[in-house]
Amino acid sequence: MTATVPLLVETLFPNGISHYLLGGILIGLGTAVIYLGTAIPAGASTFLESTLSYVSKLSRFQQPKFIASRDWRVVFTLGIVAGAAGYSLIAGDFGWTTEVQPWRLFLGGILIGVGTRLGKGCTSGHGVCGVGSGSSTSIANVAVFMIVAVGVAQLVMALGVSP
Amino acid sequence: MSAQKDHEQHPLFLPLIFVGGLIFGAGLAMSQMARPEVVLAFLQFSDLGLLFVMGGAAAVVGTTIFVASQSGRSAPLTGKRYARRLKSMDRNVMYGGTIFGVGWGLSGICPGAAYASLGIGNAAILYGIVGMFIGAYLQGYLREAKAESMSGQPAD
């Protein structure tokens, strides 16, 4: 009985949990620093539309909320890129490349672009800030994308698509 | 036409955003959520570590937002009142969540993790990032076309 628990942990978390937990806490701290300084619960996907406002005349993108936030959202995204680059350079695994096929990244990306903007947020906006706010809208959104994503990922695996 | 910009209020606004982004990006690299394979392993139940990434982040942010919004104070760099992130519920939240879920399950990427993935030197992620911009443009275009056809004049 006492041996079952470590075995279960090893099965569910074959790579341990410490880097997952510490990484998650850092993601939370980055969001918290911005929130405490500005009261803005920053999400990552609004960047897509606010950046389009630089180049598209569509009034959907020319909304004041996008114009007002587009500069800092570019800075936020550059920070994310630089922070990840810095960490991987120090850790010595910079240059790691995914083997997931380009068509999956591209088609998935299109659906993510549509879905996060239609649904008012993504893994960080709804998943971290919204769930952290106890927002029932965000909790419902996260539950839906989580369940659907598990289903699709399992289906893709069952169909033998790999990587 | 000169919309007020969020960052015109305080010289430390943009530096703080950058520092927050650095920490956020380092966390995505450390947790390996910047790797699509790790996200797919979670969704396929072979490694549930991502629960701790999202749980850890939500716990830190949840505590911060709760304490700050209870304080009744305002943020030093914007003067904005601390408040919870609450969005209105409508059908689009469910449709959007479903479409995002299909994309996330197919590719193992999401917006923040994709930016971080570029940072760790994963150039192939550009397929995903370009796709995201196309998708964001597409929904904006279609929603605007729909609004125009319903009102009979340009939506503004």
TrEMBL record, chain A:
The keyword Endoplasmic reticulum does not apply. GO terms for cellular component: plasma membrane. It is found in: Cell inner membrane. Pfam families: Sulf_transp (PF04143). The keyword Signal does not apply. Keywords: Cell inner membrane, Cell membrane, Membrane, Transmembrane, Transmembrane helix, Transport. InterPro entries: Sulf_transp_TsuA/YedE (IPR007272). It is a multi-pass membrane protein. The chain crosses the membrane at residues 20-51, 72-90, 139-161. This is YeeE/YedE family protein. It comes from Natronocalculus amylovorans. The lineage of its organism: Archaea, Methanobacteriati, Methanobacteriota, Stenosarchaea group, Halobacteria.
From TrEMBL, chain B:
Keywords: Membrane, Transmembrane, Transmembrane helix. The chain crosses the membrane at residues 12-30, 50-72, 93-118, 124-142. The keyword Hydrolase does not apply. InterPro entries: DUF6691. Pfam families: DUF6691. The keyword Transcription does not apply. This is YeeE/YedE family protein. The lineage of its organism: Archaea, Methanobacteriati, Methanobacteriota, Stenosarchaea group, Halobacteria.
